[in-house]
Amino acid sequence: MKRVLVLGATLLATTLTARAQEANLPLWEVGVFGGTASAPSYPGSPDRSARTLVLPYLVYRGEVLRMERNNLGARLVHTDDVEFDLGFDASLPSNSQDTTTRQGMPDLGTLIEFGPRLKLTLARPAPGQRLRLDLPLRAVLEVHSGVRQQGAVFEPELQFEARDIGAGWSLGSGASVVIGDRKLNRYFYEVAPQFATAGRPAYAAQAGLIATRLTFNTTKELSPDARVFGLLRLESYAGSANQNSPLHARSGGVWIGLGLAWTLGGSESRAR
Description:
Layout: H1 9-20, E1 28-40, E2 48-61, E3 65-68, E4 71-78, E5 82-91, E6 110-123, E7 129-143, E8 147-154, E9 157-166, E10 169-180, H2 182-189, E11 208-223, E12 226-236, E13 252-266
Antiparallel strand pairs: 1-2, 1-13, 2-3, 3-4, 4-5, 5-6, 6-7, 7-8, 7-9, 8-10, 9-10, 10-11, 11-12, 12-13
């Protein structure tokens, strides 16, 4: 689940995915990532947040230990068609005073997701193409004046990747559903009695569907060390478990992201 804007991870993953499928890559690389994105402040929010990020990044492609795309940790199982690892995601905070529906309520802090992920390759329609099913289950931690556990999220996703389709372009798409436990849904949609107003009645959130997503991304290789990318994500909140919450003000949302990744250097040794 990405609540506000991915903290570089998803946008950087868009441009590193195509490179991750190439052979004979360095064991480690360092570089600089710059990107800008606009997204709903949280799923169902009437307001948007925008960020521009310039960040260093490190990629490590060990046989077991990995720091690559949105994978940070141990790759415990890896065959041609099955992979089991530990993945992560992160998002930037949202100030409630800047959000129409959450005026006077606690801010939404930086959220970090971490947990196991099973990846199954279902088909390879053509060279450089892959249809894959991802099954990630992640704990959600909030970093805001301390660290607090804020529930768990399950986001099964069907992905299609096509790399090197011509002139350095690679394409990807995905369809997923985001399901949160009761604690995570309370974090977004519950209105405690002390925060209720005439236009925002008290509401008790329940576990269930948060969003349905369609994601499209494209990557263009400018040189062996530079890539530009674009990201478009369409979200539908129809049928969500908490669409009756007064904090749930929209039936859909759109993410847009653009960026550039530049590799500054890497190891002489090659990844396996």
